[in-house]
Design brief:
With about 525 residues, the protein is an alpha/beta fold. The protein has 20 helices and 18 strands. Helices cover about 35% and strands about 20% of the residues. The strands form three sheets. Strands 1, 2, 3, 4, 5, 6, 7, 8, 11 and 12 form a ten-stranded mixed β-sheet that branches. It has a six-stranded parallel β-sheet with strand order 15-14-13-16-17-18, sandwiched between helices. The longest helix is centred in the first third of the chain and has 19 residues. Bound molecules: adenosine-5'-diphosphate and alpha-D-glucopyranose.
């Protein structure tokens, strides 16, 4: 087990900088469906600013072309091709600077696969899209003569990289010292495809290396393959790292993860406080900080006015910004919030989109409680910032939550998180104790109606008791989840991985040569 110690500050100069190839299907602000985008971008920016050589590959999705960016082709990486099954795929690599940084990342240009409306699709060739991304990342390193210490892979879309490094690309001496670190952001999305796609994956000797029970059942699971072959597996909070070892949260991966428990590490995500801090947030109508909260009241009244909510400074406002997915605990909200809206005085704002049945529920709620509930269907970054600032409480009753970012944003915005005790929510919010005045939010344990009802009632009662409320808000605003801390943990882990012996010996891989 790599020893994880809490280190502070940046990489010390005496240690050699690392070479890292980071591949992800999302990267803010270019392509974002959820927190993965924030984390890939912030982690890369941290590694770069700490002096490491980080090369990122992201698909050039159609939406990136409409952003008016200065994208340049990389001269030596044009007219590339790759055989995927019986197709000859043509692609090229471009480069763009990440706004607000001097980090340049690489974009995989292949309109045939990425010139589509959304980042993820239900199309039949979804596995080909991300096979191309994964192999192109490795081949990009080959073409650049870049020998990474670490391939940092994120979620199932890049889950085949660890296996490629042990098979198809195992004989390339460039990768002799390379180790793979696979980060699970969400075990609920595994990339499961029918076994007949095998020939399109480009894995040498694929059949013997993939999970045999899955193949017998007629499927290939990208996430499982990553867990089998990555040198180290990480996930995005210590509590989630423990939870996924069990039946309830493991989603079929628990046995395999238990076998690899000594190489599984949980590192809490960090927050990019350049983006998410009310003192400097350029998307807010007024800025504020712990020493002068007056701007928060302005944000609240602007939010209420813009969304057609009754403009009442003292009515507690509960906010949600989320993908509308089962994971997020909305079945509890459906059962509890309508009743509570009739019993207690508060208003409610929801920004999100996703499952149609949840969208209908929130549309109904808005209609039924006019002036007290607003549902904004869609994706809107500016409104997300305003909700963080203008709300008094932020609700995340998740069934499971690998990390969650909004509760950490909420803390900094003086917006009290009301969360279920799971995953990263448990690791970043401490339940407020009125007897000691310690704690930063309201935390409930059991995933049931009583749990959520208790939490909302507790939060509303505390709101009425101004001294407790102010103390809890101040405690939250003082928390620091910056990447300065969390990024240093990744660096330590990457170092440990790069110095570790190659663990899983496989027939035909370089280990046996
Ligand atoms: P997940 O990755 O599971 O969706 P996280 O809490 O890690 O959850 O990250 C969600 C990120 O996406 C946050 O930055 C949040 O502000 C943002 N987000 C989610 N839904 C929306 C939306 N409808 N509009 C704007 N931002 C959103
Ligand atoms: C996932 C998780 C979320 C996490 C994010 C970034 O989508 O659902 O909890 O914060 O990835 O790691």
């Amino acid at each position: 087990m790599p020893r994880m110690t809490k280190s502070s500050g940046r990489v010390v100069a005496s240690k050699k900088p690392l070479r890292i190839c980071l591949t992800s299907s999302e990267f803010a602000p270019f392509a974002k469906a959820g927190g993965l985008a924030d984390v890939s971008a912030a982690l890369s920016a941290y590694l770069h600013s700490a002096g490491h050589d980080v090369r990122v590959l992201l698909p050039r999705y159609a939406r990136i072309d409409s952003m008016g960016l200065d994208i340049e082709p990389v001269e030596s990486l044009q007219d590339l091709q790759m055989r995927i099954g019986d197709q000859e795929v043509h692609y090229a690599i471009d480069t763009v600077t990440v706004p607000g940084t001097d980090l340049r990342i690489f974009l995989l240009r292949c309109p045939q696969f990425f010139g589509r409306e959304s980042i993820y699709t239900q199309d039949d060739d979804e596995h080909v899209r991300f096979t191309l991304l994964s192999r192109a990342a490795i081949e990009m390193c080959q073409q650049m003569g870049f020998a990474p210490h670490i391939f940092s892979c994120h979620d199932w879309q890049t889950g085949m990289i660890p296996l490629y490094l042990r098979t198809t690309y195992a004989r390339d001496k460039l990768f002799a010292e390379t180790r793979s670190v696979f980060t699970i952001h969400n075990i609920g999305y595994q990339g499961v495809f029918p076994a007949h796609v095998l020939g399109q994956l480009g894995v040498d000797g694929a059949e013997q290396h993939l999970h045999q029970d899955d193949l017998n059942a007629g499927v290939i699971n990208f996430l499982k393959t990553a867990i089998m072959y990555a040198d180290l597996v990480t996930t995005v909070s210590p509590t989630y790292a423990r939870e996924i070892l069990g039946d309830e949260y493991g989603m079929g991966m628990n046995d395999l993860l238990r076998e690899r428990a000594s190489t599984l590490v949980g590192i809490l995500n960090g927050v990019d406080y350049d983006e998410w801090d009310p003192a400097v947030d350029t998307l807010l109508p007024a800025n504020y900080s712990a020493s002068d909260m007056s701007g928060k009241a302005t944000c609240k009244s602007v939010l209420q006015r813009e969304l057609g909510l009754q403009e009442e400074a003292d009515t507690p406002l509960v906010g949600i910004v989320s993908r509308l997915a089962g994971q997020k605990g909305f079945d509890l909200v459906e059962k509890v919030v309508p009743r509570m809206l009739t019993e207690r005085h508060f208003s409610f704002v929801v920004l999100g989109s996703g499952e149609p049945q949840l969208e209908s529920f929130f549309a109904w709620l808005q209609h039924h409680f006019k002036g007290r509930v607003c549902f904004y269907k869609g994706y809107n970054n500016e409104l997300a910032h305003l909700i963080e600032a203008g709300s008094d409480m932020f609700l995340m009753p998740s069934r499971y939550e690998p990390c969650g970012l909004n509760q950490m944003y909420s803390l900094r915005y003086g917006t009290v998180p009301v969360v279920r005790e799971t995953g990263g929510l448990a690791d970043s919010v401490q339940h407020y104790d009125p007897t000691t005045g310690s704690g930063t939010g309201v935390v409930f344990r059991d995933y049931d109606e009583q749990g959520l009802e208790w939490a909302l009632n507790t939060a509303l009662d505390l709101y009425d008791s101004k001294s407790h409320w102010q103390k809890m808000v101040a405690n939250g605003m003082a928390m620091d989840y910056s990447w300065e801390q969390q990024g240093a943990e990744y660096v330590e882990l990457f170092r440990t991985a790069s110095e570790s012996p190659y663990e899983h010996r496989m027939p035909g891989s370089r280990n046996n040569e």
